[in-house]
From TrEMBL:
Keywords: Acyltransferase, Transferase. The keyword Transferase applies. It comes from Bifidobacterium canis. One of its GO terms (molecular function) is N-acetyltransferase activity. Gene3D superfamilies: 3.40.630.30. This is GCN5 family acetyltransferase. The keyword Nucleotide-binding does not apply. Residues 1-173 form the N-acetyltransferase domain. It comes from the Bacteria.
């Protein structure tokens, strides 16, 4: 698997995965994704399977393989995630302290194999290396345990009312005392991401054993 940032050429594949993952009322449409891509392509993280077969029928083909998962969001001075961030990519400022996450998606045929977790750890590592204060996302209640497993802490109801859903805001802060809630999981996520990044750099263009091939 390869991890890379996005370009406008990836738009159709991103839109295909987005619409396969979310109902129309929640999915970012082509225009919104295009606006985000134009403004912050380096704040899209794509997991790409370079080994595809003629049997792959899911319409998420990229120049370098099949789009498996992606995570995206702006960097903002504002510490809380708001609905405006979904609509207004111009709020992005690459020098600001907070990495927001607006979308976490894995194409259905690749789900439950650890793909989103792998990519999330790369996002966490990149944000830590960029000296961000932390990462903020909004999720539905049933996803709280998934994000808690990386060290994100639930802050209760988000002020976001995106698509008329009750969201929880979750935050992963980097500079916290060792005994703070989630600090041990954060450290584990970063350590694992560092190992995975090294493996990726050593064995570029090979599929790692963590991702069973899809037959
Ligand atoms: C949520 C989503 C991004 C997760 O993607 P994913 O690639 O399946 O995520 P992972 O495989 O890393 O983890 C998902 C679950 O599979 C489990 N898992 C990981 N590897 C596994 C494996 N090899 N075998 C079985 N289960 C596995 C994880 O423990 C996790 O369990 P949990 O849901 O109980 O926490 C994906 O389901 C999706 O796109 N959903 C639709 C969009 C959405 O809801 N996005 C989140 C918005 S908040």
């Amino acid at each position: 698997m390869l991890v890379r940032h996005a370009t406008l050429d990836d738009l159709d594949a991103l839109a295909a995965v987005e619409s396969a993952c979310f109902p129309p009322s929640e999915a970012a449409d082509l225009d919104r994704l295009a606006n985000r891509l134009e403004t912050y392509p380096d704040h899209f993280w794509l997991l790409v399977n370079p080994v595809t077969s003629d049997n792959d029928c899911f319409p998420a083909q990229l120049d370098d393989g099949m789009l498996v998962s992606f995570i995206d969001g702006p960097v903002t001075a504002q510490a809380d995630l708001t609905d405006e961030m979904y609509e207004s990519p111009e709020l992005h400022n690459s020098d600001a302290p907070w990495q927001m996450i607006l979308g976490v998606n894995t194409a259905p045929m690749y789900q439950h194999r650890g793909c989103a977790s792998f990519l999330m750890r790369q996002v966490i590592l990149d944000a830590a290396l960029a000296h961000r204060e932390g990462i903020v996302l909004a999720c539905k209640e049933k996803k709280l345990p998934f994000y808690s497993s990386f060290g994100f802490v639930d802050e209760g109801r988000s002020e976001s009312n995106h698509s008329n859903v009750a969201w929880h805001q979750m935050r992963l802060k980097f500079n916290v005392p060792e005994d703070a809630p989630g600090a041990d999981l954060l450290q584990a996520s970063i350590s694992l991401a560092m190992k995975e990044t090294t493996a990726y750099m050593d064995h570029e263009h090979t599929i790692t054993s963590q991702f069973p091939q899809v037959s």
